[in-house]
């Protein structure tokens, strides 16, 4: 048995192989002793016979001479040969699995730099993964899914994301953003609790089926909680009110010629009304985020203060230009992409 090969195996496979090899070695030693006693030959000759029998070499120079010897020989062959074959099968199987994983590139390799961590399986996840890939984001998916169903740009960690051990393999503390989307709301809540223990400062978004879970997730510090069913229902309802509303919303989130970004107002900016900000910027300003409050500026005209976030729609490849001393552009926790705005202040 090539023991040096056992060192190349993972811990679990190595332990299985060692158990099989150890059991075979014990049977060879005991079988050699019993065979030597029954055949009245030296102990070393008995062990020699046991080794050649267990390894199926069988030179025939030492053979049983009576019924007792033939019984011992049968016992050795029926036990040690399968045990050694099983050990070789474990080692070979492990080598094949490693080769396939390397060939398919499904090993647990982490991308360099920041990445988006997605936890759990949900019908919306394939679309999310596709959109993140289109945006150029590195993605790690922790879910018990078929590896062949995962896009090539996604690094899969196969397992249950509600398991603390499996979740830790995704290193949530290193992620730039985390999306939790379990098969049910209970899994989402459990994953949220584990994530907050491992990564208390990383922004988290959760997908839930019932809006009743939203307060509990908010208490855990989940930044954004979405209900796909509610979102779909509201979109359809608005489409009934205005026939082209749903088409406009779909174009907003699916359009390839533009991107959604967040722009943080600089500390040197004086407070200004949202209507004034909209008239000064070239990008389409959807609204403003002040603390946890999001305003579209339809029913009112909120004041935009330093530290607030402007929700913008800008063309792809567009480098925003600041107007009237807007603060420097920052890549916040939800900023999709885009180069940094040039420094300085004042009108362009």
Give a written overview of the molecule.
- Residues 103-108 and 319-348 have low confidence and may be disordered.
- α9 (228-241) crosses α10 (245-254).
- With 348 residues, the protein is α/β, with parallel strands linked by helices.
- It is built from eleven helices and twelve strands.
- The chain folds into three domains: 3-104, Helix Hairpins (Orthogonal Bundle); 116-230, NAD(P)-binding Rossmann-like Domain (Rossmann fold, 3-Layer(aba) Sandwich); 257-348, no CATH class.
- It has helices at 3-6, 11-39, 43-54, 67-104, 125-134, 164-169, 185-198, 214-219, 228-241, 245-254, 274-280; strands at residues 116-119, 139-143, 154-158, 177-180, 204-207, 224-226, 258-264, 272-273, 284-290, 293-295, 303-304, 309-315.
- The longest helix has 38 residues, at 67-104.
- β1, α5 and β2 (139-143) form a beta-alpha-beta unit.
Overview in brief:
The chain has helices at residues 3-6, 11-39, 43-54, 67-104, 125-134, 164-169, 185-198, 214-219, 228-241, 245-254, 274-280; strands at residues 116-119, 139-143, 154-158, 177-180, 204-207, 224-226, 258-264, 272-273, 284-290, 293-295, 303-304, 309-315. It has 348 residues and is α/β, with parallel strands linked by helices. The chain has 3 domains: 3-104, Helix Hairpins, CATH 1.10.287; 116-230, Rossmann fold; 257-348, no CATH class.
Write the layout of secondary structure elements.
Blueprint: H1 3-6, H2 11-39, H3 43-54, H4 67-104, E1 116-119, H5 125-134, E2 139-143, E3 154-158, H6 164-169, E4 177-180, H7 185-198, E5 204-207, H8 214-219, E6 224-226, H9 228-241, H10 245-254, E7 258-264, E8 272-273, H11 274-280, E9 284-290, E10 293-295, E11 303-304, E12 309-315
Parallel strand pairs: 1-2, 1-4, 2-3, 4-5, 5-6
Antiparallel strand pairs: 7-12, 8-11, 9-10, 9-12
């Amino acid at each position: 048995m090539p023991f040096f090969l056992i060192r190349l195996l993972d811990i679990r496979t190595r332990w299985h192989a060692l158990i099989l090899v150890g059991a075979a070695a014990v049977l060879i030693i005991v079988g050699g002793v019993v065979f030597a006693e029954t055949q009245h030959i030296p102990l070393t000759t008995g062990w020699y016979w046991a080794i050649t029998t267990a390894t199926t070499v069988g030179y025939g120079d030492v053979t049983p001479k009576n019924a007792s010897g033939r019984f011992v020989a049968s016992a050795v062959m029926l036990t040690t040969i399968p045990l050694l074959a099983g050990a070789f099968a474990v080692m070979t199987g492990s080598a094949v699995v490693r080769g396939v994983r390397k060939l398919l590139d499904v090993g647990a390799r982490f991308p360099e730099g920041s990445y988006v961590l997605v936890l759990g399986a949900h019908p919306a996840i394939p679309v999310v993964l596709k959109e993140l890939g289109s945006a150029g984001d590195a993605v790690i998916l922790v879910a018990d899914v078929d590896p062949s169903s995962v896009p090539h740009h996604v690094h899969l960690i196969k397992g249950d994301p509600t398991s603390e051990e499996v979740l830790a393999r995704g290193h949530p503390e290193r992620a730039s953003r985390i999306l939790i989307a379990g098969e049910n709301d209970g899994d989402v809540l459990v994953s949220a609790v584990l994530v907050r223990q491992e990564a208390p400062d990383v922004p988290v978004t959760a997908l839930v089926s019932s809006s009743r879970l939203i307060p509990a997730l908010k208490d855990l510090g989940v930044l954004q909680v979405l209900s796909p069913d509610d979102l779909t229902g509201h979109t359809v309802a608005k489409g009934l009110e205005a026939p082209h509303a749903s088409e406009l919303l779909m174009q907003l989130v699916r359009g390839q010629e533009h991107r959604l970004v967040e722009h943080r107002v600089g500390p040197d900016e004086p407070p200004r009304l949202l209507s004034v900000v909209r008239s000064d910027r070239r990008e389409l300003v959807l609204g403003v985020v002040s603390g946890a409050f999001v305003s579209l500026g339809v029913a009112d005209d909120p004041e935009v203060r330093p530290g607030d976030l402007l929700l913008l729609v800008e063309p792809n490849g567009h480098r925003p230009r600041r107007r009237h001393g807007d603060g420097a552009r920052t890549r916040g926790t939800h900023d999709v992409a885009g180069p940094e705005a040039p420094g300085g202040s004042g009108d362009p």
